[in-house]
């Protein structure tokens, strides 16, 4: 289903904004309204200049805006034009991370939101996890164990993101990915992954096994203790802990 390029644009809507920005917003509404038909033609350059009654420069600038937002891409040659694309998750997570870094989000606020969102994911996953989900979590734990000498954080599998994905909630997954990514950006400059890998692996194993066992309360407690410990402890102090240290108490959240 192609995007409609025949409706004439109301030129009076240009007031107070650039032509290109107005065109880009109009086309974005078209894309969303049509159900985001990936790969379909929004319109050729000629069709878009005719539709909006503007010059080629404005249409090209609007196309660049849409490409920067991950909404569309230009294809040259016969049959070419502006095509709908799949938006890149990294555009969203990177932008959110940069903004939160810019406004100086407080550590306690960051960890509080991370805890609340991942506890929601745990509640859903632990109550419904199947053998495939259990195998996935254990494979991540095994992969993490094999990578304890990794020098960078981003090379290590992300258990928190895996739990969010198993919750089958795209919004929850996106927000948890953003929060864990921001947390890494805060802690990674101070500590190499291999310096705290043993402690992290032990905590992640506790969380994963509680989720697999269907013990929502214990999994949430393990997560809370993990996040609270990371929040209040300098990475160099975490590194001195042994995997068996600070066993979690089995009590209600």
Briefly say what this structure is:
By secondary structure, the chain is mainly alpha-helical. 62% of the residues lie in helices and 4% in strands.
Please characterize this protein's 3D structure.
By secondary structure, the chain is mainly alpha-helical. Helices cover 62% and strands 4% of the residues. It contains eleven helices and three strands. The chain has helices at residues 19-33, 45-52, 56-68, 89-103, 107-128, 131-146, 159-166, 170-187, 193-212, 216-232, 235-240, and strands at residues 41-43, 72-75, 81-84. It has a three-stranded antiparallel sheet with strand order 1-3-2. Helix 4 crosses helix 8 and helix 5 runs antiparallel to helix 10 (216-232). It is elongated, with a radius of gyration of 24 Å. It starts with 18 loop residues before the first helix and ends in a 13-residue tail after the last helix.
Radius of gyration over all CA atoms, rounded: 24 Å
The biggest beta sheet is recorded as:
3 strands, antiparallel
Strand and helix order? HEHHEEHHHHHHHH
Mean pLDDT: 81
Spans where pLDDT lies below 50 across 5 or more residues: 5-16, 234-253
CA(first)-CA(last) distance = 51 Å
Blueprint (SSEs and pairs):
Elements: H1 19-33, E1 41-43, H2 45-52, H3 56-68, E2 72-75, E3 81-84, H4 89-103, H5 107-128, H6 131-146, H7 159-166, H8 170-187, H9 193-212, H10 216-232, H11 235-240
Antiparallel strand pairs: 1-3, 2-3
Helix pairs in contact: 1-3, 2-3, 4-8, 5-7, 5-8, 5-10, 6-7, 6-9, 7-8, 9-10
């Amino acid at each position: 289903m192609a995007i409609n390029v025949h409706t004439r644009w109301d030129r009076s809507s240009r007031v107070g904004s650039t032509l290109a920005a107005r065109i880009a917003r109009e086309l974005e509404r078209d894309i969303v309204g049509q159900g985001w038909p990936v790969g379909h033609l929004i319109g050729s350059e000629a069709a878009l200049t005719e539709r909006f009654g503007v010059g080629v420069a404005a249409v090209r600038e609007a196309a660049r805006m849409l490409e920067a937002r991950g909404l569309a891409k230009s294809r040259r040659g016969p049959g070419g034009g502006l095509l709908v694309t799949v938006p890149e998750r990294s555009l969203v997570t990177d932008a959110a991370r940069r903004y939160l870094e810019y406004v100086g989000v407080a550590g306690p606020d960051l960890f509080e939101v991370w805890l609340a969102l991942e506890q929601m994911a745990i509640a859903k996953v632990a109550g419904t996890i199947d053998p495939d989900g259990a195998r996935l979590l254990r494979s991540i734990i095994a992969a993490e164990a094999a990578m304890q000498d990794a020098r960078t954080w981003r090379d290590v599998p992300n258990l928190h993101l895996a739990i969010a994905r198993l919750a089958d909630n795209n919004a929850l997954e996106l927000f948890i990915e953003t929060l864990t990514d921001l947390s890494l950006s805060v802690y990674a400059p101070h500590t190499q992954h291999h310096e705290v890998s043993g402690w992290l692996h032990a905590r992640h194993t506790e969380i994963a096994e509680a989720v697999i066992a269907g013990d929502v309360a214990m999994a949430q407690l393990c997560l809370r203790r993990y996040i609270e410990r990371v929040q209040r402890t300098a990475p160099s102090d975490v590194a001195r802990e042994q995997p068996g240290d600070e066993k979690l108490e089995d009590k209600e959240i």
